[in-house]
Amino acid sequence: MSGAFRPSPWTTGGHRQTLLGFLCRRRLAWRLPSEDVVVEAGGDVRLLLRASWQTGPRAARRALVIVHGLGGSDAAGYVLATGLHAWRAGWHVIRMNLRSAGDSVSLCARLYNAGLDEDVLAALRAVSLEVSALGLVGFSLGANLALLALARRASRLPPQFLGAVAISPPLDLQECAMALERPANRIYRAYFMGNLREAYRRRQRLRPDLYQAGREQGVRSVREYDEAITAPYAGFRNAAEYYASSSAGPQLASIVHPALLLAAEDDPLVPSTSVRRWRLPASGGVRREMLRTGGHTGFVARTAAPGRFWAAERALSFLEGL
User: Fold this and answer.
1) Which of 246, 267, 289 is the last residue of a domain?
2) In the prediction, which pLDDT does 260 show?
3) Is 193 inside a domain boundary?
4) Do 54 and 167 share a domain, yes or no?
5) 162 and 181: one domain?
6) Beta sheet of 46-52, edge-to-edge order
7) 3-state SS string for 266-297
8) Both 49 and 151 in a single domain?
9) Chain centroid to CA 307: how far?
10) DSSP at 229
11) 1 domain-assigned
């Protein structure tokens, strides 16, 4: 069981928790043995999973699949903290890269987005061939994808699937894109836009047959990027249609597998209203925990998990109880 979230008084506040979370985990590294697993996800989509297997028969241990957020990869600090905590608890750890994220861009240069839950399903099904039980943890955009997979692909999830934890989930993509444009969020906006523009240029160089050169020029916000790049290349008319189709919030009530939604009231990027307002299944199998502070994937406090990442401890506690 995880203890209550008790951050030090000087660490409270959305921006402080968010930035401290990054600083506390930026020096984490994955030094455990890992195997690159390439998953064929249909068409020319290939996904790179970084799998660290415990010794002994693989079926004797549970596996945790971890999905990163926007601009992240298997090397993101919150992924490493969660994976290291799970490994110490005896779980196999599989750090998933969304299509073309991190080192996987050479395998598949196609753009990922918040609605490609079939990629998460492909990863889960691949891991299920090795183990007898598996859980899923997603962060930010990856949390939205995890919940979409539970809502839209329930009948296709492997029988070994236990449940999922969604940390700082952007359940209303439109509202979250608008929140990112607030003046107080300019540091995050600059970070995301720098990553998105460079990522698009890299993919365009690799696949000039797919992506038009220069489309990222002049794009100043995530919403403008989604309007100019994400939506048209994903088959949507505009960003509004992409957001409406890909937001997990309206589909939470249809989830039949156990799930935990963990968010903070002071998250600067995911307004608490965008997490609170959705109806949950009457079964009670989906829990929503809103903490007074924690920021965006911050949750910095004394904990057994590396990088002072209390949310990693809470996520594993939830999954171990299933």
Assistant:
1) 246
2) 98
3) yes
4) yes
5) no
6) 35-40, 46-52, 92-96, 63-67, 134-139, 161-167, 259-264, 286-291
7) CCCCCCHHHHHCCCCCCCCCEEEEEECCCCCC
8) yes
9) 18
10) I
11) no
Q: Is 14 helix (H, G, I), strand (E, B) or coil?
A: helix
pLDDT at 155: 97
Burial level of 90, CB count in 10 A (0-12/13-18/19+)?
exposed
Q: Residue 60: count other Cβ atoms within 10 Å of its Cβ.
A: 12
- Residue 67's nearest CA partner among 154, 143, 167 is 143
**Which residue is listed with tokens 């934890």?**
165
Domain that holds residue 263: 9-172+253-320
DSSP 48-79: EEEEEPPSS-GGGS-EEEEE--TT--TT-HHH
Give the Cα separation of 298 and 296 in Å (integer).
5
Mean pLDDT per 10-residue interval, the chain, length 322 residues: 89 98 98 98 96 98 98 98 98 98 96 98 98 98 98 98 98 98 97 97 97 97 98 98 98 98 98 98 97 98 98 98 97
Structure tokens at 28: 């984490």
Q: Into how many domains does the chain fold?
A: 2
pLDDT of residue 3: 81
> In this structure, what token pair is assigned to residue 138?
């997603």
- Which of 54, 128, 6, 91 lies closest to 319, judged by CA? 91
Q: What is the CATH number of the domain that holds 132?
A: 3.40.50.1820
Decide which of 202, 231, 246 is a domain's last residue: 246
- Please tell me whether residues 185 and 88 are part of one structural domain: no
Domain membership of residue 302 (yes or no) is: yes
For residues 151 and 198, membership in a common domain is answered with: no
Strand ranges for 2-133 from DSSP E: 35-40, 46-52, 63-67, 92-96
Q: Which residues of 72-87 are buried (b: 16+ CB within 10 A; e: fewer)?
A: bbbbbbbbbbbbbbbb
What's the pLDDT score for residue 1?
A: 62
Q: 36 and 146: one domain?
A: yes
CB 101 within 8 A of CB 203: no
3 within domain boundaries: no
